Design the sequence.
C-alpha cells in the first residue's frame, strides 16, 4: 500500500504523549494529530496538527467527564473531517478513564469511520487501583471496540511492570508503544515480497468477532522465542486460540530464508481455527540484519 495515508492520532494526556513519541519513530511520511483540552499536550511535537477541545483551555482537561469530551469533539467535526479526508488508516492512541481520551477518543473514532478510514485503536486501561477511572473506562472501551476495526487493549499495570523490568524510566511503558507502532506502520507502508495491502487488512478485520494485533521482534533463528516475545506483550487480552483470520507480515534482513519464514508462520498460526484464513507477507529490510520482525493481525475471535 505505497502512498497509503496513515494518521497517528493521540487523544488526551496519555494519548498525546504516546502518539508524539511513536510519530518520532516513523517519520514525516505519516501524519500526526494531537487532540486535547489541555494545551500543554501540544508542546510535545512541532510537526503535529492540533485540535484543541473547548474554549476555556486548562490543565483540568475534560474534567474526567467523557460526555463533555465527546460533545466538544463533535462540535469540531468540521476540522477533523477535513483532516481525515484522504486518510486510509488511523492509529488512534488514548488512555481510558479520563474525560478527553475516553469521550473525545470515541467520537474521533466514529468520525474516522464515517470518513472511510480503517481504525486501529490502542486503548490503555487504567491501573487496577484506580477504581473510579476503571468504571469510566469500561463503558468507553465497549464503545471503542464496537467502532474500531481493531481495538488493542493495553493494561497499564502490565505496561508499567514491563517498563520497570526493562529499566526504562517512563512508568507507562511508552517504549513498548513506540516499538509497536513502528512495527505496524513500517509493515503497512512498505511493499512486501508478497504484496500485502490495505485490502488484505480490510479483509481480515471485517470478520465477525474481536480482533487484536501482535508485534514481535527477535532472532531469526529462534522462532519460539519470537513467539514468546509476542505473547509477553502488555495486552489486556491475548487469546488467539480459535481465531478465524490472521494477517501475518514477516520482515527480515537480506539473509532471511524461506525456512525461517515458514517456521515463524507455523508457530503463529498453530493456535488459530483449522479453517482460518491466513494472509502471509514477507519482506526484506536490510537494516534488520539477523532480526525478524513479525506483525500479526488476528481476527474473528469469539466474543466473550
Ligand atoms: N497513576 C497514574 N495514572 C495516570 C497518570 N496519567 C494518566 N494516567 C492513567 O491514564 C488514564 C488517562 O489519563 P489522561 O490521558 O491524563 O486523561 P485525559 O484523557 O487527558 O482526560 P481528562 O484530563 O480527564 O480530560 C487515566 O485514567 C489513568 O489511568 C498519572 O500521572 N498517574
Ligand atoms: Mg487530560
Sequence:
Amino acid at each position: 500500500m505505497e502512498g497509503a495515508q496513515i494518521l497517528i492520532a493521540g487523544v488526551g494526556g496519555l494519548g498525546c504523549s504516546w502518539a508524539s513519541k511513536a510519530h518520532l519513530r516513523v517519520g514525516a511520511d505519516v501524519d500526526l494529530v494531537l487532540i486535547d483540552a489541555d494545551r500543554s499536550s501540544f508542546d510535545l511535537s512541532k510537526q503535529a496538527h492540533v485540535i484543541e477541545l473547548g474554549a476555556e483551555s486548562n490543565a483540568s482537561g475534560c474534567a474526567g467527564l467523557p460526555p463533555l469530551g465527546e460533545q466538544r469533539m463533535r462540535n469540531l467535526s468540521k476540522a477533523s473531517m477535513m483532516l481525515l479526508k484522504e486518510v486510509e488508516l488511523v492509529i488512534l492512541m488514548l488512555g481510558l478513564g479520563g474525560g478527553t481520551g475516553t469521550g473525545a477518543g470515541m467520537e474521533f473514532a466514529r468520525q474516522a469511520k464515517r470518513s472511510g478510514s480503517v481504525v486501529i485503536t490502542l486503548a490503555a486501561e487504567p491501573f487496577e487501583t484506580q477504581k473510579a477511572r476503571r468504571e469510566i473506562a469500561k463503558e468507553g472501551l465497549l464503545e471503542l471496540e464496537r467502532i474500531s476495526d481493531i481495538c488493542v487493549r493495553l493494561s497499564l499495570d502490565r505496561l508499567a511492570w514491563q517498563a520497570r523490568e526493562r529499566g526504562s524510566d517512563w512508568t507507562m511503558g511508552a517504549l513498548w508503544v513506540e516499538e509497536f507502532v513502528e512495527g505496524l506502520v513500517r509493515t503497512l507502508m512498505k511493499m512486501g515480497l508478497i504484496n500485502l495491502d490495505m485490502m488484505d487488512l480490510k479483509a481480515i478485520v471485517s470478520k465477525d468477532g474481536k480482533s487484536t494485533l501482535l508485534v514481535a521482534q527477535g532472532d531469526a533463528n529462534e522462532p519460539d522465542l519470537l513467539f514468546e516475545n509476542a505473547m509477553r506483550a502488555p495486552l489486556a487480552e491475548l487469546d488467539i486460540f480459535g481465531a478465524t483470520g490472521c494477517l501475518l507480515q514477516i520482515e527480515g534482513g537480506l539473509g532471511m530464508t524461506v525456512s525461517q519464514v515458514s517456521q515463524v508462520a507455523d508457530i503463529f498460526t498453530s493456535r488459530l481455527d483449522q479453517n482460518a484464513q491466513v494472509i502471509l507477507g514477507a519482506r526484506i529490510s536490510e537494516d534488520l540484519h539477523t532480526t525478524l520482525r513479525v506483525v500479526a493481525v488476528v481476527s474473528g475471535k469469539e466474543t466473550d
Notes: Residues 24 and 256 are 28 Å apart (CA to CA).
